[in-house]
Amino acid sequence: MFYREAGQFKTSYEADSQIFPIRQDRVAVCTVLAVAFGVLPWIATEYWLTAILVPFLVFSLAALGLNLLTGYAGQLSLGTAAFMAVGAYASYNFQLRIEGMPILASFALGGVCAALVGIAFGLPSLRIKGFYLAVATLAAQFFVLWVLTKFPWLSNNSSSGVITAQKISILGVDVDTPVRKYLFVLGVVTVMALVAKNLVRSHIGRAWMAVRDMDVAAEVIGIPLMRVKLLAFAVSSFYCGVAGALYAYCYLGSVEPDGFSLDLSFRILFMIIIGGVGSILGSFLGAAFILLLPILLDSTLPAIATFLHLPFTNATVSHIQLMVFGGLIIFFLIVEPHGLARLWQIAKEKLRIWPFPH
Question: What CATH number is associated with residue 287?
């Protein structure tokens, strides 16, 4: 009843092929963007901006990049954190060594460098797939971190590989406050999310999904597997590279190679599993879930332990968090493999006929 498209007539091809063809979706997206750009910067505290909203947007962008590769193209990858590291360190070096380089150009070039690395480690996808491909991409995780540690030129001769991000300035305006950093990250993520939404609706996205469903049949109907798979690795790594640059410049400010560990790659993989594989919205839902659940557990578990007189320590709380993450992943893989995005889709289908039974 609330989500019915009855009466919404399409009178042109442009109207029929809109990115959000249903009016309720357009209203919802515009409302979310209006709140994100116009309300949250004024009401959110500095803690919420720096510790929750900015990392949520950064990890959403990284999960979106991985979702393009794994969810839409069907290519497993465990090197997401490595591609983020390439983007962060490449952007740092572009800013350091090229005087007058615009910050957005540095981020874009950092994403390009990550895309090139992604193509190099995506070459095994032409011959192997599944878990074997995941192990091959795992090599990127260790190789990239080894390069960043053993070649001090990449970190401006830092003995430990630590880099400190330069100040962000756009058209003479310094992005140095939590509100400005949040708005900057939000703008970048919004644009790239809309590009990804359009990309998966194009012939490129349809080719990715054809390869994901059955690569042999896709090749029979004329889809070039090599170009399509490597393009998926390139686009995914580009998104992860830009996310890594935002991670270094707008969230942490100072990063080291060990900060882009395998644990971060698994964390982003958990985001798309819980949020929904093959869904743009699922990347954001999964990132929000993974970031907010530890905060919820940190605030509720000590109170429960006090009430039940249980000797909970900080280490116990962290172990329970890992147990909850593992249990949720198993739950979603068994009960709802398409994650939170599928639950939202089911809710919209129910709203189409509510309160009537048919």
Answer: 1.10.3470
Q: pLDDT by residue (tens digit) across 77-93?
A: 999 999 999 999 999 99
Whether residue 234 is contained in a domain is answered as yes
Average pLDDT, integer, range 128-132 = 83
- The answer to whether the predicted template modeling score (pTM) of the entire model surpasses 0.85 is yes
Residue 13 belongs to some domain of the structure:
no
For the chain, what percent of residues have pLDDT higher than 90?
Answer: 49
Range of the domain at 168: 44-353
- 3-class secondary structure for the chain? CCCCCCCCCCCCHHHHCCCCCCHHHHHHHHHHHHHHHHHHHHHCCHHHHHHHHHHHHHHHHHHHHHHHHHHHCCCCCCCHHHHHHHHHHHHHHHHHHCCCCCHHHHHHHHHHHHHHHHHHHHHHHHCCCCHHHHHHHHHHHHHHHHHHHHCHHHHCCCCCCCEECCCCEECCEECCCHHHHHHHHHHHHHHHHHHHHHHHHCHHHHHHHHHHHCHHHHHHCCCCHHHHHHHHHHHHHHHHHHHHHHHHHHHHCEECHHHHCHHHHHHHHHHHHHHCCCCHHHHHHHHHHHHHHHHHHHHHHHHHHHHHCCCCCHHHHHHHHHHHHHHHHHHHHHHCCCHHHHHHHHHHHHHHHCCCCC
